[in-house]
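We were asked to recover a plausible sequence for a given structure. The inputs and outputs are reproduced exactly as logged, with field labels preserved.

PROBLEM: sequence recovery
POSITIONS: 288
GIVEN STRUCTURE:
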């Protein structure tokens, strides 16, 4: 090769671009664009939302019930039950709200009479106890009181005839619509008003008396009775008669069935229908 001969320039293309500055340093990097910055933020937000939802589901299920929550739930249930019972009992007494003033006065008088009877019985028992404690001959006094108590129990059991003030109740049933339970309601009202002896159409009414049959074919203790139904009741007339005439009571119920009830006061009512004395099979006196 000749000394002054220069090598030929390379004709191969190159893709490299020299970005270095004349001093050899690199140019500063360009900041990422807004789309490149938004994509990581959106991904973090989706990841945080998913994590929060999972935490909420994990806190709600399965449910965790503590003892305090069970106690509060039980107390709320008892409170609700008590309120429901109170509301129901208040609604049951709604019949008295529509009663007239004279009817309410009559009911109050009946309650006062019952209280007075209980007070009288209490004083009587206290007097008997005082007589037993102070009597010089306690054996004779005990015998006298025993005989008196036997007469009283005989009247209640229906084994002894009785007489005294009271009322006569007559129920006319031309349509044959009076049911046995209506007569039983009359008995219950009379007992609640202080009736001490009752008989219906010659049948003595005692603690185990029962009414069966149907309208127009009523039976008392298995014996058929027919209208008119005649009640003889011994007790305080001032208490017995109002008990039958209270609003929604026996008299009004019978009138709805086209039956009539007549009540007459009397200073002497004789209850002479008797029941045989029964010896209990199993019960024995516990006193020695």
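RECOVERED SEQUENCE:
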């Amino acid at each position: 090769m000749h000394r002054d001969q220069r090598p030929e320039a390379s004709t191969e293309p190159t893709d490299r671009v020299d970005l270095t500055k004349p001093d050899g340093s690199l140019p500063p990097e360009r900041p990422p664009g807004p789309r490149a910055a938004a994509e990581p933020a959106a991904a973090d937000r989706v990841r945080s939302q998913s994590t929060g939802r999972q935490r909420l589901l994990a806190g709600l299920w399965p449910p965790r019930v503590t003892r305090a929550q069970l106690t509060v739930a039980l107390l709320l249930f008892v409170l609700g039950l008590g309120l429901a019972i109170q509301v129901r009992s208040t609604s049951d007494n709604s019949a008295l709200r529509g009663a007239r003033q004279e009817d309410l006065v009559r009911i109050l008088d009946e309650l006062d009479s019952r209280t007075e009877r209980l007070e009288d019985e209490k004083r009587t028992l206290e007097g008997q106890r005082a007589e037993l404690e102070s009597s010089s001959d306690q054996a004779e006094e005990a015998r006298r009181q025993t005989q008196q108590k036997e007469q009283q129990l005989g009247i209640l059991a229906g084994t002894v005839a009785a007489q005294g003030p009271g009322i006569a109740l007559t129920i006319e049933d031309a349509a044959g619509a009076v049911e046995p339970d209506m007569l039983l309601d009359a008995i219950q009202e009379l007992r609640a008003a202080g009736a001490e002896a009752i008989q219906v159409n010659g049948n003595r009414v005692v603690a185990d008396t029962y009414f069966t049959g149907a309208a127009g074919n009523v039976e008392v203790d298995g014996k058929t009775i027919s209208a008119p139904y005649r009640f003889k009741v011994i007790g305080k007339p001032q208490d017995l008669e109002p008990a039958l005439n209270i609003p929604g009571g026996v008299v009004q119920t019978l009138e709805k069935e086209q039956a009539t009830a007549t009540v007459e006061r009397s200073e002497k009512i004789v209850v002479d229908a008797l029941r045989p004395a029964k010896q209990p099979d199993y019960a024995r006196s516990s006193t020695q």
